[in-house]
Amino acid sequence: MVARRAGVSPQTVSNAINSPDLLRPETLERVRAAIDEMGYRPSRAAQTLRTRSSKLIGYGIQPVPGGDTAPVMDRFLHALSQAADEAGYRMLLFACPPGGPSLEGYEELLGQHDVDGFVLSNTARQDPRQAWLAKRGVPFVGFGRMWSGRQIGDWVDVDGASGTDAAVEHLVALGHRRIAFLGWPRGSGVGDDRAEGWQRAMRRHGLPTRGRRAESAGDVEAARSAVKPLLDAGATAVVAASDTLALGCYHALRERDAAPGRDVAVVGFDDSPTAGILSPSLSTVAQPLEAVGRECVRLLLARMADPAASPGRVLLEPSLVVRDSTAAPGSDAPAP
């Protein structure tokens, strides 16, 4: 019907949809006009039969203890879905069990031939998924480095060390010298990366780090308890590995009638939705999640097109968002 409306062959319509570069501009414009007039949409089922491609990308959703990164992953998933949609794919979500990464769900989807590839997140040391998928020739891309000695597959990540380094630079410029770090227990790839940026910047300025690092689980209450020794030791600023940990610092400061910004500067990480509405608003490091989503889809489609290509690795720069929770030592920043 579209071909008749445009006065071309059905193959020309197919080329206009799937290989527009094969057509002359005037022919392509005529076919697209007919498609728009008729409201035509290609049949995904027919394309699947013809190309043996499901046009689906699998993504396993894993519960996050304490909800520490849930808002961030929600934003990433939206960006990923939008990028996949623009490329003609859909995201197929499936539930993963709590705890560390596992193969549950991946084997079933592959057995049913329901997806063309996977996007992995929450990558961790001893993660079994990458080697398992690579051995079977299944295309995948990770949001996050592999964090192991053996680098497998394609990945896109945000340079956490660069983000915390920038946070320390900002605090030093304000006049802070006793800058502490509140992070996760050692052994977390993401957490260790963010701690390294703090250490690197502190060493660059000749500032001591001994006794100025505390570890906490991901929830606010644990962070509130963990940061107390740092405050007792006289820290005038705290760089936290996440906004959730920074919120725990807020609570600890209020317990001692102190205010974030005015008495102790606080910097978070992730620029979660609550960062801008806290009182005072939280300075934090923002991840370029829209770019992460686009790059993940780009690398995955490139892997599907050329399974033998060299691994793609993309490390993106975060940005520091300065708000009211950081001020010079002893300044009159807004009180909560």
UniProtKB/TrEMBL annotation:
Q: Which Pfam families match?
A: LacI, Peripla_BP_3
Q: Which CDD domains match?
A: HTH_LacI (cd01392), PBP1_AglR_RafR-like (cd06292)
The protein's GO terms of the molecular function aspect are: DNA-binding transcription factor activity; transcription cis-regulatory region binding
Q: Which UniProt keywords apply?
A: DNA-binding, Transcription, Transcription regulation
Q: Which domain of life is it from?
A: Bacteria
Q: Which Gene3D superfamilies match?
A: 3.40.50.2300, lambda repressor-like DNA-binding domains (1.10.260.40)
Q: Where is this region: Disordered?
A: 1-20
Which residue ranges does the record assign to the HTH lacI-type domain? Answer: 1-51
Residue stretches of biased makeup (Polar residues):
9-18
> What is the name listed in the Swiss-Prot or TrEMBL entry for this protein?
HTH lacI-type domain-containing protein
Report the source organism.
Streptomyces malaysiensis
List the taxonomic lineage: Bacteria, Bacillati, Actinomycetota, Actinomycetes, Kitasatosporales
